[in-house]
Amino acid sequence: MTYNLKSGHATLDDLVDGSLAKNVALQGAKTIFYVEGNSGSDTGGDGLTWETAFKTLAVGLAASHADISSGNRGWASRNVILCKGDYLDEDLVLLAQKTDVIGVGSVNAVQKCGLRGNHVPVTNDAFGTRFYNFFFIGDATTGGDIWTLGSKNANVQFHDCTFHADSATAATAAIVSTGSAFVEIHNCKFTGKFSDATIEFGNGDTAGVRVVGNYIESAAVGLHFNSGVLDRTSGEEQYILVMD
């Protein structure tokens, strides 16, 4: 089953090394961190240049999260992580407060950063993490849900990303969100035979959810909202936008 929700938009597909983003989009960043999955080091570098890049996104996220809350110069700012790698094999358990994570370079022939694993960010409270230009795929052995979001996260956003179901074991879902407010999914592609709903919103806080301009495939259901999400009294306002 295929759901085609598309709209015209600019993408980051032409980013080779992050230079365009750094010159145009990142001028307001407090700190820019770098992650290089092939040649970086989590112990030998500070993550502040490509030459001293971290190796894993988990370490980059932890560094940005600590940096953005390190003083009053940081708290009203946003940080940026530029990330490249063929496939970073990680199961993320944390996100970074007020951080844009931008995939650059290529994974094989795809102009994105590859990230393989099942991500359940529950270690810290992190609001306002945004992902751009990533190629997400589930764990090669277990499949499972690629992203599971909960009340520890709010205003998590995905822009111009691809979520692919077909690893050695097909992924169950791309994004499962329960109690995570203001989730936004813009101009993403969901490809392959997800065995459950590709995008699922469970019962809980769904205020401000926006699902806009996406292409969605599934072996089951493309987009599912739990009945409890929509069954609200007038005092429990929910703002949900789903559109082409």
From TrEMBL:
InterPro entries: Pectin_lyase_fold/virulence
Name of the protein in its database record: Right handed beta helix domain-containing protein
Species of the source: marine sediment metagenome
